């Protein structure tokens, strides 16, 4: 997996991370817990405000969809009861996304193909949340996989590009929560295309291993970040 | 309490894997007990510290991690800036753009309804967080609750210099008795310091900085003659050098401290 991470790069927010996966690059920032607007306030837990901004142009329904998927994942991971009546604001700004002009992909097709961005956003959120010291139940990571003719190991493509997505028979974003660095539970599945149950179960297994190896990468990155923050102790 | 060997780094979801046994355990920052299954989990990434008292009857676990936002906790020692008055209380800010805390006008030594402290907006106080329930406004107070005396709390005078450091560094300076940074600084100058767990440090070297600008007209009011003025400039320089030294200490390893101290005090 090619994952390039730079965290704590923004100094006006509580946590931030810049993540580069394949040809997609984005910055995630987390501010919180902060004072919410009164309509956002929840009496016994933190509310989440998630804003996704595209690399080009203004946000559309496509970004709203990503926001919604992200929220469904994050609200189960953040220990929201620790921050009653507070707001956690997460902003995802895409810097580089796949240039669809190079492929023969129509605008309406592009509207549906959000997997690459969603996958990158989930992974970036993890680093930003850890950087902001927001309480989490467990770590999480996500992979984007597309399957071509039939789902067998060699036919899977991890971290596909836009073109792969457009021609694939099915593509999936699968996100796992990882506890005790070995066991994991599914947090989010986003699938599009044709696939059978058998194929899908195989895919879940494969993605579990991928998420776990991603988790090891997350750990080594966070360890080096913490060591840097506590450098004066060594 | 005896300390176990070098703490390891944990991230959310890790198994903290400690045998708590029958002894009473106190969970500190970064540790959460899931009310559903009573599982004890780490919620933030940082150094896991497990301490045990000698009789093995009490444990303390917490995770030491850095964050940018300060969340008030009861008994934290903080430096706050007065931002306004609200009825019988002052509004106090602990970080830029953060929610205000309340400092009651009667929360000072010997203060009564009639005998109130006279603080102005912009002045800084050293205070203790007395109430930090997330459901209501947090409160601070400026006296030692056990003795009722001032106990080092109260107004920080304007001859000191306030600057920001990382929260983890501030905690270490305040609580780690083996911390070398202040001892080393003491070899170079005489100083008075107040460290807030909200990442603010108030520092006064020598007699402090009496006027905001060393060469403005206000200098004449405080300083009488040239000798005082040069002493004033020296104090100002020393304060700034010490602040620079402490700020730099956050990003260097322990063996570079001497070098950094020399560099900061080079021109004095």
From TrEMBL, chain A:
PANTHER family: EXOSOME COMPLEX COMPONENT, EXOSOME COMPLEX COMPONENT RRP46. Keywords: Exosome, Nucleus, rRNA processing. Residues 4-134 form the Exoribonuclease phosphorolytic domain. SUPFAM superfamilies: Ribonuclease PH domain 2-like, Ribosomal protein S5 domain 2-like. InterPro entries: ExoRNase_PH_dom1 (IPR001247), ExoRNase_PH_dom2_sf (IPR036345), PNPase/RNase_PH_dom_sf (IPR027408), Ribosomal_Su5_D2-typ_SF (IPR020568), RNase_PH (IPR050080). It is found in: Nucleus. One of its GO terms (cellular component) is cytoplasmic exosome (RNase complex). One of its GO terms (biological process) is TRAMP-dependent tRNA surveillance pathway. Its main location: nucleus. GO terms for molecular function: RNA binding. This is Piso0_001836 protein. Belongs to the RNase PH family.
TrEMBL record, chain B:
One of its GO terms (molecular function) is RNA binding. It holds the Pfam family KH_6. Keywords: Cytoplasm, Exosome, RNA-binding. GO terms for biological process: CUT catabolic process; exonucleolytic trimming to generate mature 3'-end of 5.8S rRNA from tricistronic rRNA transcript (SSU-rRNA, 5.8S rRNA, LSU-rRNA); nuclear polyadenylation-dependent rRNA catabolic process; poly(A)-dependent snoRNA 3'-end processing; TRAMP-dependent tRNA surveillance pathway; U4 snRNA 3'-end processing. Residues 160-207 form the K Homology domain. It is found in: Nucleus. Its main location: nucleus. GO terms for cellular component: cytoplasmic exosome (RNase complex); nuclear exosome (RNase complex). It comes from the Eukaryota. Gene3D superfamilies: 2.40.50.100, K Homology domain, type 1, Nucleic acid-binding proteins. The keyword Cytoplasm applies. The keyword Transcription does not apply. This is Piso0_004793 protein. It comes from Pichia sorbitophila (strain ATCC MYA-4447 / BCRC 22081 / CBS 7064 / NBRC 10061 / NRRL Y-12695) (Hybrid yeast). The lineage of its organism: Eukaryota, Fungi, Dikarya, Ascomycota, Saccharomycotina.
């Amino acid at each position: 997996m090619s994952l390039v991470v730079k965290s704590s790069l923004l100094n006006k927010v509580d946590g931030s991370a810049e993540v580069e996966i394949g040809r997609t690059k984005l910055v995630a920032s987390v501010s919180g817990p902060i004072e919410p607007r009164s309509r956002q306030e929840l009496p016994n837990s933190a509310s989440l405000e998630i804003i996704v901004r595209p690399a080009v142009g203004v946000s559309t329904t496509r970004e709203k969809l990503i926001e919604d998927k992200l929220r469904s994942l994050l609200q189960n991971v953040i220990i929201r009861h620790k921050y009653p009546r507070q707001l956690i604001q997460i902003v995802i700004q895409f810097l580089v996304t796949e240039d669809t002009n190079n492929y023969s992909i129509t605008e309406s097709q592009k509207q549906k193909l959000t997997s690459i961005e969603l996958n990158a956003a989930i992974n970036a959120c993890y680093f930003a949340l850890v950087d902001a010291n927001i309480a989490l139940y467990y770590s999480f990571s996500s992979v984007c996989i597309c399957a071509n003719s039939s789902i067998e190991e060699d036919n899977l493509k991890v971290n596909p590009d836009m073109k792969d997505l457009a021609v694939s028979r099915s593509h999936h974003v699968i996100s796992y929560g990882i506890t005790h660095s070995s066991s994991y539970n599914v947090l989010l599945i986003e699938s599009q295309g044709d696939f059978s149950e058998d194929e899908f179960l195989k895919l879940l297994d494969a993605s579990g291993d991928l998420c776990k190896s991603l988790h090891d990468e997350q750990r080594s990155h966070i360890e080096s970040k913490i060591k840097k923050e506590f450098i004066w102790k060594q | 309490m005896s300390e176990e060997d070098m703490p390891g780094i944990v991230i959310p979801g890790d198994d903290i894997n400690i045998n708590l046994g029958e002894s009473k355990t106190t969970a500190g920052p970064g540790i959460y007990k899931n009310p559903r299954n009573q599982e004890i989990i780490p919620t933030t990434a940082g150094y896991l510290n497990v301490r045990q008292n000698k009789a093995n009857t009490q444990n303390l676990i917490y995770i030491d991690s850095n964050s940018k936002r300060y969340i008030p906790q009861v008994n934290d020692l903080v430096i706050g800036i007065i931002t306004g008055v609200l009825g019988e209380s002052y509004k106090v800010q602990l970080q830029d753009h953060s929610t205000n805390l309340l400092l009651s006008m009667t929360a000072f030594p010997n203060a009564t309804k009639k005998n109130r402290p006279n603080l102005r907006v912009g002045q800084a106080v050293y205070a203790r967080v007395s109430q930090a329930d997330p459901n209501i406004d947090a409160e601070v107070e400026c006296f030692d609750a056990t003795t009722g005396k001032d106990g080092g709390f109260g107004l920080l005078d304007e001859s000191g210099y306030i600057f920001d450091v990382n929260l983890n560094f501030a905690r270490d300076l305040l609580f780690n008795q083996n911390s070398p940074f202040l001892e080393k600084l003491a070899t170079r100058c005489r100083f008075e310091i107040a460290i807030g767990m909200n990442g603010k440090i108030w520092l006064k070297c020598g007699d402090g900085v009496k006027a905001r600008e060393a060469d403005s007209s206000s200098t004449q009011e405080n300083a009488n003659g040239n000798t005082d003025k040069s002493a004033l400039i020296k104090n100002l320089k020393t304060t700034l050098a010490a602040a620079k030294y402490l700020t730099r200490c956050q990003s260097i390893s322990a063996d570079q401290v001497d070098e950094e101290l020399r560099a900061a005090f080079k021109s004095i």
